[in-house]
């Protein structure tokens, strides 16, 4: 049902508590990842030439404005997943009635159990928070099973920060990010992108697009 928030079973994890605190104590201009216009994400998404009815999921979307732009462009099958319920509630409040056009899922990505497949899986700055072998493999397995189309993934580069929101991250070069997804996906394009934070600092990202390999 559109507009419904679906909750996962693992709601008491330390990661969840961390992100709930972030989104209940800080405003968008107080966190580094805020973008007024998600230009790079939109560029990649437009490059896939998807139909407006294609199922799209934004992993770790939180209260990002990407969903606003996708709705404005006429995409009609949109899902936003985030570990923080507070972040999604903030996005819903901002969107108002338009929030009813979106599927909202509260889940840790490593325990997410999708009930459908997606034509596009977008992830800006969630994958790099997975720092253990098991976490990374769980994510890659999930993406392979849930995606029937394209991936757009952005992580901190080797020239980017070592931490975000006080948490350790895993940096990726173009080669490393391409290799991580190579079992199930063919790399299409990678770019380096400088994100200017609300504090006027610069975070360098590796952003890559992939297409699911044909069996």
3D architecture notes:
The chain has helices spanning 14-25, 39-47, 66-72, 85-95, 133-146, 174-180, and strands at residues 5-7, 56-59, 78-82, 102-106, 118-124, 147-156, 163-164, 167-168, 185-196, 202-212. With 215 residues, it is an alpha/beta fold. It has a single domain, classed as 3-Layer(aba) Sandwich (Rossmann fold), CATH 3.40.50.150. The strands form two sheets. The protein has an eight-stranded mixed beta sheet with strand order 1-4-3-2-5-6-10-9, sandwiched between helices. Strands 7-8 form a two-stranded antiparallel ribbon. It is globular and about 45 Å long. Residues 6-12 have low confidence and may be disordered.
Q: Main sheet: which strands, in order across? A: 1-4-3-2-5-6-10-9
Give the count of structural domains.
1
Task: Indicate the CATH class.
Answer: Alpha Beta
**What amount of the residues lies in strands?**
25-35%
